[in-house]
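Re: that chain you flagged

S.,

Sorry for the slow reply, it's been a week of failed gels. I finally had a moment to sit down with the sequence you sent. For the record, here it is as I used it:
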Amino acid sequence: MTDTQLDIAASPRRIFTVDEANGMLPAIDAIFREMDAKSARARELSDLVADLEAYWGKSIDEAANDEHARYVMLKEELAAALQAVNEAAIRLTGLGCELKDPNRGLVDFYAYVNGDLVYLCWQRGEKDVAFWHTLEAGFPGRRPLLK
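Prediction finished late last night. Pasting the structure tokens below so you have them in one place:
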């Protein structure tokens, strides 16, 4: 039994038709938009935290440092933004698809093509789910769905 088969057996997944997967795209895109905003804010906050650390070194952790309170606030906001991104990813997975690459907006849906269990593959910006690949092939192995 392959690792992929073990994963499927350990956590049953929803099997989609192409129409069902296409019906999920508006909800998926909305979650990606939320993730975009939170990820962008997390990058900004990470840069600000890194700048303070680079400038002040270890003294930024000292309460007497004039920038310490701001540093703590930025780190807390960063943690919250990262948590929000994680929660959005969990919601996306809860829809039944698999998040493959949040930066590229890449998701897969379990489906049957020609009797074989495969992934329907969709990347943000594509109008519809129009590709599939084997469970092992990944994005480079995408093939067009025959209409």
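What I noticed first: DSSP finds three helices and five strands in the chain.

Talk soon,
D.
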